[in-house]
Amino acid sequence: MKPDRATATAAPRTDGGVETLDTSVIVCTFNRAASLHDTLQALHGLRVSQSRQWEVVVVDNNSNDDTRRVVETMQRDWPLLRYEFEPLQGLSHARNRGIASARGDVLLFTDDDVLPEPDWLEATLDGLERHRVDACGGYVAPIWGAPPPPWLTERFHGFLAIRAERSDEYPITRAADAPFGANMAVRRSVFERVGGFDTGRGRKGAVLAAGEDGELFARILEAGFKVVFLGQSRVHHKVEAFRLTKRYFRRWRLHNSRNQALHLGMPGNRRLFNIPLYLFPQFLRALGRAVAGRFTAKSDEAFNREIVVCHFLGVFQGLWQARHHRN
């Protein structure tokens, strides 16, 4: 059967009186009403089989712009669209709200700055079934808001949630290769087994923390579930011009490393200001490499060495902030 537009859907199933669907698309959003409108327009234009039972759940994470109005306006002509509000600030809180309120057997995640391709939903669900796996991630291509600078090579794409280096299909066996939230799908039964997103991780307002996707998939893999990358499950991720600056990358690395150190700590008994002593010589070596790199290394390598210094600074900040909580 040829897939139809998003407005068509079969009658929902029921499970113990609770309405269940094949899949729920979860979009968490914070103060991006205009961009969210673009994302919802792309989702509304998906080519989906008429037999598919699905919905779109927008989770508003304390937005103070026109987010709710954008969703309610589209709901008038799109009954598949639902609105949820999550008062606890943080992307992980919002995603967990989406998981709790969604009615689908498979939960597809994307972001409010992402434009899925028309066959995204069908390609994702088809791949899950063909490979008989429990979760998957897909291709995330950039929509550059400005020409990327010469130093911004593929080694930095992970900072921007870009995954476009491969378009084939392959198993994901390491948490280091975890899908990005811009394009991933997980069966509901997996969340029932391993739990939701770690609310100590992930972006919170203006704080650029991350790591929640990798931590979740570490638990998924450890529990023995199977994960695959689907190169034909494709979305396009807007990368605004302000994110193509070294200042943004420094801030991203600092916030992430600080958050990780604050919540997870670092091993080591001999400490100064709650910082393990072995980190200080490592930091000095990194600093020396960064200084030398400014004169001897290519632009991307030189900046990568600077990012390592930012990592240490973030770790130091996190450990310092956590010093009163250490047993």
Helical content, roughly?
A: 25-40%
Q: What is the terminal-to-terminal distance?
A: 61 Å
Query: How much strand?
Result: 15-25%
What is the level-2 CATH architecture name of the largest domain?
A: Alpha-Beta Complex
Rough outline: globular
Mean pLDDT: 90
Total individual domains: 2
Low-confidence stretches: 1-13
Structural class: alpha/beta
Tally of contiguous helical segments: 9
CATH uppermost class of the largest domain? Alpha Beta
Oligomer: single chain
CATH superfamily of the largest domain: Spore Coat Polysaccharide Biosynthesis Protein SpsA, Chain A
Number of strands: 12
User: Would you give the CATH topology of the largest domain?
Assistant: Spore Coat Polysaccharide Biosynthesis Protein SpsA, Chain A
The major beta sheet can be summarized as: 10 strands, mixed
Write the layout of secondary structure elements.
Blueprint: E1 13-15, E2 18-29, H1 33-44, E3 54-60, H2 67-75, E4 81-85, H3 91-101, E5 104-111, E6 114-116, H4 120-131, E7 135-144, E8 169-172, E9 184-187, H5 188-194, H6 212-222, E10 227-239, H7 246-264, E11 271-272, E12 275-276, H8 279-296, H9 299-321
Parallel strand pairs: 2-3, 2-5, 3-4, 7-10
Antiparallel strand pairs: 1-2, 5-9, 6-10, 7-9, 8-10, 11-12
